[in-house]
TrEMBL record, chains A, B, C:
Membrane topology type: Multi-pass membrane protein
Family to which the UniProt record says this protein belongs: Belongs to the UPF0126 family.
Taxonomic lineage of the native organism: Bacteria, Pseudomonadati, Pseudomonadota, Alphaproteobacteria, Rhodospirillales
Record-given protein name: Membrane protein YeiH
Record carries keyword Transmembrane helix: yes
Superkingdom: Bacteria
Segments traversing the membrane: 6-27, 34-56, 68-84, 96-115, 121-141, 153-173, 179-198
Major subcellular location class: membrane
Keyword match Transmembrane: yes
Originating species: Azospirillum rugosum
Length: 206, 206, 206
């Protein structure tokens, strides 16, 4: 068992809470009852990290070894259930939070993959998977095409954050400032792309 | 490799057959052909246990190491295919069977997680996952929002069964009667909740 | 770590490219942007093999240990994006390619499961999973009922290829010609079944 650093843990737990909140909010909008809300919160919060841990062989996954993950996910579901009207009035803040979760998870996922000895390209892929996996499972469970496939700059923002982590590791830069810069870069790319309405090209004649 | 007890194995295999039946029945209703019915039976029957085994590091999963799992799942698909009209006239018995599978899988899943050294909270989660995972995959494959998110007391019944397993283990009670009591409790909560039309609260103003 | 043979690797990589192409083509038809196309290509190309590797305990999965998998998947996404009109005029060739991928993946998946010490029945199941898994994830992500459940002879063709691999291994025949014959048989069954419009029976009174 390889332990991750306190910084990665803090990023992971913050991301868990934020993603759980987005899952719970979607569940409330779909008029699920309190159990459905909590289930969707937990799944959205933990699926990305679970998939990553399964793939790097970190079994049982961190979220099953450390109760704080599950508690953070559960809390996010309860917050989404009880403060749903307030959250919904806050469309922009929720988008901003989601972007923060995206950056944090991409960095934590990529960093953990490196810690487990993966090479750069797969580590980047796992960063993106960690960041986008929970949202994909959330959208699939409510029978929607996942946001990561529809929204312009989403996987791209996670990709940017993961690539910065790799670049920093290759250059031998100190890990903490690189992690913070990477999460910030992913976060900013996502927020600015929504704010400016950036869109990526579609296939010619599609 | 840690072997599970004969009791857990019997519970697992019974649950496999029952869940395979529910998967096959859904497939017949969707007018899938015989291969589609068998595929959906197998997936519904085995997905919950597969996910559990992947997460506790029991690899290859039990259902790939012991042919009886696959045979039970296959049989359930054939039964669903050929006896579909009879099964469909039996809406209540199918619900009751499904509730039985729910209780059995929750107990088997939670018990196996404990056997593999997981702590109580994650073991409960894995019990719920084992019980609900197959049905989730089944519903996702036919493009429906999973029952576990829509139905009032479903994950809740699995949760109850798993919590009783944990409580019994913490109190040092003998495992077999605790397992039977836990499966029964989950089963009864599910059946009674359907029978009495119990519903869980929805979010205020959702 | 057990290495697979060069033949299995070549089959795997060819299958990856072909399945990535089918994923990318579906994505273009759904008017996803270039990132969505690439994500769906990668997922379709790699999901089957990833699931197989997770289940046999080959962790990290081959596609995360060997950059060529990811590169092949990425390339297929770009080809689908830029040559989509040409590909779409070629409905039949795409079906034929997909059938080829089906046969190749079934053989590679079943062979790798044997290499990792699984017994015949689970090895066959993993061959089918490897062949059909990517397409299932692709269809689920665009909110469609997976082709493997709807199309007559699809899982069946993968099953045939995997069974031939097993039969060859049991009879002690040389692996390379058996692998080629098995992939061909799966491919031909699929192509002929589409060409002749073969259909499998539906449940009586469904």
């Amino acid at each position: 068992m390889t332990d991750i650093s306190p910084l990665l843990l803090a990023m992971d737990l913050t991301g868990v809470f934020i993603f759980g909140l987005t899952g719970g909010t979607v569940a409330v909008r779909r008029q699920l009852d309190i159990f459905g809300v909590i289930v969707l919160s937990i799944v959205t919060a933990l699926a990305g990290g679970l998939l990553r841990d399964l793939m790097i062989g970190a079994v049982p996954p961190a979220s099953l070894r450390d109760d704080r993950y599950l508690i953070a996910a559960l809390l996010s579901g309860l917050v989404a259930f009880f403060f749903h009207p307030q959250i919904n009035r806050l469309v922009k803040p929720v988008m901003v939070l989601d972007a923060a979760g995206l950056g944090l998870f991409a960095v934590a996922g990529c960093g953990k993959a490196l810690t487990y000895g993966l090479t750069p390209v797969p580590a980047v892929l796992l960063g993106v998977l960690t960041a986008c996996g929970g949202g994909v499972v959330r959208d699939v469970l409510v029978a929607e095409v996942p946001r990561v496939l529809r929204e312009e700059i989403y996987a791209m923002a996670a990709l940017l954050a993961a690539v910065i982590v790799i670049a920093g590791a290759e250059l031998g830069l100190p890990r903490t400032p690189v992690a913070i810069a990477a999460a910030l870069a992913g976060f900013l790319l996502r927020v600015v792309s929504v704010w400016r309405g950036w869109s990526a090209p579609r296939a010619p004649g599609s």
